[in-house]
């Protein structure tokens, strides 16, 4: 690249002053500065586009590696599940034979099946969201004098002000 020092820039400035003239030099300098700014912005845009494309390629490679790892995990889980199902069926096959000779009257659950223990179903207390526990009925609020609607101070004064009889006696 061109090495521009202070001495070379001064020489270029003196030559431009002589060739262009002092009247047109500021306008030419502004035009040259604007063109250099546009060129720098163009170069920066090209650099950013190149870096974005490189990042996109890296992301695509990372995505492919993650997808391949996910496929490997999925295949290992499926093979493990099939192994588990096979061992489970082998283990339960031996138990079915043992239950065939089991005494019929010794252990029955609520449904009458043999050999399965009875476990109560857990029910969390106060889990019925349809019933409000702390709801107060409207008739009780009216009887007890609980305010259900808010009023402004002026409305309250007007409501409870004693009425003067405007009828003559």
Automatic annotation (TrEMBL):
It holds the Pfam family TatA_B_E. Keywords: Cell inner membrane, Cell membrane, Membrane, Protein transport, Translocation, Transmembrane, Transmembrane helix, Transport. Residues 143-169 are annotated as: Disordered. It is found in: Cell membrane; Membrane. Its main location: membrane. It comes from the Bacteria. The keyword DNA damage does not apply. The keyword Cell inner membrane applies. Coiled coil: none annotated. It is a single-pass membrane protein. The Tat system comprises two distinct complexes: a TatABC complex, containing multiple copies of TatA, TatB and TatC subunits, and a separate TatA complex, containing only TatA subunits. Substrates initially bind to the TatABC complex, which probably triggers association of the separate TatA complex to form the active translocon. Part of the twin-arginine translocation (Tat) system that transports large folded proteins containing a characteristic twin-arginine motif in their signal peptide across membranes. Together with TatC, TatB is part of a receptor directly interacting with Tat signal peptides. TatB may form an oligomeric binding site that transiently accommodates folded Tat precursor proteins before their translocation. Belongs to the TatB family. This is Sec-independent protein translocase protein TatB. It comes from Hydrogenophaga palleronii.
């Amino acid at each position: 690249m061109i090495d521009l020092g202070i001495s070379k820039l001064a020489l270029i400035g003196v030559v431009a002053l002589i060739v262009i003239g002092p009247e047109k030099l500021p306008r030419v300098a502004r035009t040259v500065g604007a063109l250099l700014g546009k060129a720098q912005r163009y170069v920066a845009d090209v650099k950013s586009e190149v870096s974005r494309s490189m990042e996109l390629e890296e992301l695509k490679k990372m995505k492919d590696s993650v997808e391949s790892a996910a496929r490997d995990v999925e295949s290992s889980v499926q093979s493990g599940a099939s192994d588990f199902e096979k061992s489970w069926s082998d283990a339960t096959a031996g138990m079915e034979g043992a239950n065939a000779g089991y005494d019929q009257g010794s252990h029955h659950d609520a449904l009458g099946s043999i050999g399965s223990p009875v476990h109560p179903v857990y029910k969390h207390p106060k889990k019925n969201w349809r019933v409000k526990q702390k709801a107060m009925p409207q008739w009780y609020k009216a009887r007890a004098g609980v305010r259900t609607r808010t009023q402004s101070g002026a409305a309250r004064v007007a409501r409870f002000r004693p009425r003067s009889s405007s009828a003559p006696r």
